[in-house]
Amino acid sequence: MAEPLGPLRWPCPGSGADGEWALATDCAAPLVRLLIVPPLFDEMNRTRAMLATLLRDLGAAGVAAMLPDLPGCGESVQDFSAQSLNAWRAAMAAAARHFDASHVLALRGGALVAPPTLPGWALAPLDGDAVLRPLLRAAMLAARAQGAETTAATLLETGRATGIMLGGYHCGAALIAGLHGARSQGEGHQVLAVGDLGVTGAAPWLRQEPAPAPALAAALAARIVADLAT
Questions:
Q1: CA 123, CA 192: separation in Å to the nearest integer?
Q2: Mind telling me which Gene3D superfamilies this protein's record contains (predicted)?
Q3: Among 182, 204, 221, which residue terminates a domain?
Q4: Among the ranges 13-22, 180-189, 214-223, which has the highest mean pLDDT value?
Q5: Is the pLDDT score of 46 beyond 90?
């Protein structure tokens, strides 16, 4: 039987003595210890409720699961503007070691920073340019509304050189440069689409507000448990 641990701290690089927060469930004899890597930017906020539901469903099925905040995100003590793709990768690798993870589940842009040495799954993964594209488009439209004509390419070059505000996030140059052209780390991870899980309706990362998406959480938990049994 899973026991909800709720929020706990772990020693994330760059976070000082207090570390960072993670949500976790635990099991007396877990099938696996699953590290969940959330999506990036606002998709992370939109999926937070669904991921909390997923944690409970996995725990009930005997899977110990951990959902750490990326540095600079959520309840992190770090500054978002100081983050880079490499910093996020190092943080998730450190989380995998600290929690003794045996498998990983990455969602969307989280596939870019998930530990590549762990077996696991990637749900609707994105490459770095696909993460940046809607953010740059929104910034371009916002600039146009203010009477300033620009292009996504110009904004990208500005971001790579000096950093840029995208989607309400102050992105440093290192993060933009790292995302541009980035590919998923886990080529061996099993790629899943929402349709593969038999779930209809808009995925939570496409919605305007966070939503639990219990059907998707239940289907994803069931697929993970089924795959582990084969």
A1: 5
A2: alpha/beta hydrolase (3.40.50.1820)
A3: 182
A4: 214-223
A5: yes
pLDDT at 1 over 70: no
Overall domain count for the chain: 2
pLDDT tens, position by position, 195-209: 999 998 889 999 888
Please, what is the average pLDDT of the chain?
92
Question: DSSP secondary structure string, 146-210?
Answer: TT----HHHHHHHHHHH-EEETTEEE-HHHHHHHTT---S-TTSEEE-GGGGT--S--GGGSSS-
Same domain for 217 and 172?
no
As a whole number of Å, the end-to-end CA separation of the chain is 22
Quote the domain boundaries for residue 161.
129-182
Q: Are residues 189 and 178 in the same domain?
A: no
Tokens of 112: 């870019």
Nearest to 25 by CA among 43, 4, 45: 4
Q: How far is CA 6 from CA 24, 45, 128, in A?
A: 6, 18, 31
Out of 25-39, 41-55, 107-121, 212-226, least confident range:
25-39
- The Cα–Cα gap between 30 and 63 comes to 5
What band does 8 get if pLDDT is binned at 50, 70 and 90?
Answer: confident
Q: How far apart are CA 41 and CA 72, in angstroms?
A: 10
Q: What tokens were used for 3?
A: 């026991």
